[in-house]
Design brief:
The protein contains 11 helices and 2 strands, in the order αααααααααββαα. The protein is mostly helical and 286 residues long. The protein starts with a helix and ends in a 12-residue tail after the last helix.
Amino acid sequence: MGVVSCFSSIPRQWRTPKVLIGLFIFELPLSIAALALFGIAQPDLYRTKFWQFGSDQGWNSNPNQIIYAYANYKPIKSPLPWSQFTTNFNVVIAVLSVFMLLCKGIMFIVGVFHPLISIIFHAALVALYAVSIHNQAGPDMSDPAHPQPGAPWYLTKSCGPPVKPSLVGYCKQAKAAFAVTVLMCTLFTTYLILTLITLYPNKSFRSASSSKVSDYDSSQQPWEMMEAPRTAGSTGGLKSPTTPRTKAFNTLSSNEKAPARKGNQGIPLRHHIGMGDETYQGPSGN
């Protein structure tokens, strides 16, 4: 009863399915846009160019420091906004978002996209896109002479002058990719809020679940309290199976005489079974 009560207390139907469908429709163009923007930027369409231009303007470190560090055998890591890891990570989560959107749509159509599954899906996606936002807007403090404590210049500054004309289009693309990342994270957070609202049981759901549990208990009670009728040859109220051999042993145990057989009149059945005719020394019928 405890397991049934636990599962029955978890809603499996969406309270506002039309809102969920609307979020699916809104997520589709965002997922495609994220996949396109991150895919175009991979592997290094404008990342190093932005890094070098910011260094020329004194806004961030110089990309040549990586080469100097490798030449002098010094351990160094690229700052998050300029690292290859950030670019690859964005492509991976964009592909994962499209795949999970297809899975969610199919599961919703067949009726198995329950709120608990939604929590697992969207909690993971919120975490991934939050990491992506942190990586894209991370600081660059690798050069003490030119620190960048906040987001990179292409997110905090305009794409107009003094930006080179050759970088204006890339600057707008990078801004769009960051904006799509923020929108995706906000969208998946909205999914989580909607799921938590659905999982919170209201009065109608609590009354329906309690009635289901009471119906289940009432259907199980007669079987738990009912005692099987006692019949002949039964033990503890349960009827034992009766076979011809069982009947024969019951006959012997009630001291009934076994039918006589020619050649050994009046010999009990146990002597026929336990010994041969020649070993029996009992009285003869003649």
